[in-house]
Here is the input.
Amino acid sequence: MLDEKPVVLVIDDEEAMRDSCSQILAKDGFQPETAGNGDVGLKKARDVKPDLVLIDLKMPGISGFEVLDKIKEHDPSIISIVITGYATVESAVEAMKKGAYDFLPKPFTPDQLRIIIRRGLERRRLIQETERLRREKMLMEENFITMVSHQLRSPLGTIAQYFEVILAGMVGKVEPRQEEMLAKARDRLESLMELINDWLDMARMNRGQIVDRLKPLSLKEVLKDIVEFMQPSAQKENIQLELVSYSGRDVVQGDDETLKQVFSNLITNAIKYNTPNGKVKVFLEETEDSVAVNVEDTGIGIPEEHLNYIFDQFYRIKKKGEKKSGGTGLGLSIAKKIVEAHAGIIRVVSKTGKGSTFTVVLPKARPESEKE
Amino acid sequence: MDKAKILIIDDDPDFVDAVTPILKSAMYDVVCASNPAEGKEKALSEKPDLILLDIMMDSLFDGFSLCHDIKTSKEFEGMKDTPVIFVSAVKEMTGSRFQFKGEEQGLRGPDDYIDKPVKPDDLIARIERLLKN
Here is the structure.
């Protein structure tokens, strides 16, 4: 950055003004560029990418105010300084409102020009530096989470893989007592991996990022993928998992990845907390301005006193005599975070011994955004 | 039908070691490669019936590009229909099973995803389903 001369563009219809500014600027180690009117100035700004621009307010053609407005479109961090011979408080205020960094009434001395330019460039340097640091920090955060996730999960996954193979009896006979212990070790390892996942999710799930990724999306498609994906684990638990066909409108503004995470979480729970030979029914319902996804199970249900808290972080329903911990206590709060970023609602109706229905209500996409 | 041949491309030898017995128990032939370059070579020389491909090896996304090559490049002519299953320990990273960003960048995705550790039954079921097609 230091070896490059800062570029200063002078937009003024007076030739004398352009020349004298250029001379001062060149002498001071800047690279001067000039334009005789607003249009040329804007074009030049695009070509030479100035760090700072001096704009005369009164020019034939487009006015200095308009130049001020438009020049920000190319480079939001550009420093604009207004120079004018018709300095009034009103025009100064107006220029500042339009984003000018400073105001220099004509006539001015070379020193005044130097000072104001140096200050402006310093300001630009700070803005750029801040932006650079912000970007670097963001990149580090993103990669950090991916790397941590990978480096923590990889070895655990391999350890678990050995357990799986040994437990499946694929490398020799396993005695019952050994099998029991190995199975416990595997289960503990699995919950540890789940916990790492959920923590990282909680850390990285960021409302703004989800909102940025929203696009028209067919819920039917999303659910079809998920249900298909979950089918093997449902079968393993002897649970009948069904996606009810639906012909209503199903397009919402959604983020595919995180919505799939929500539904896969709900369906996983519905399978996990079901009764033997139970059912999980996934069905859609339409209201005037929203689409609801219901995940209904025939499971053990959630006692009423817990219903208000199940979406809270780390909330877990403890039951007497139940040793196995039911997950990390983060799944539903992550789901809630995601659904809320979609401007939706998640709710639950449950009856102990009968089952629970989790419902995710998402606003319909507006028809014009459905068109591809 | 002859025994189907499965190529595992993964940079973690222990993972390969642990998965091989699963495949063998289902009577598959197994060949392995421990990096993308070797994977490419083995894919061409061994002509496997199915490929298990680790997503993150040397770099974060080399699994994605290898998969894309197999599915589209001239080099792999005749292998376009070889099913590829992505295997990854990282569910929720930028390339989770649900978020194959590569597709947005025009990369061809895999035929299926499976998370590490793989459940023996699940893995076999997924392989069988793909081989039947």
Remarks:
- The interface with chain B takes residues 142, 145-146, 149-150, 153-154, 156-158, 160-165, 168, 170-171, 197, 200-201, 204, 229, 232-233, 236, 256-257, 260-261, 264 of chain A (CB under 8 Å).
- The first strand of chain A starts at residue 7 and ends at 11.
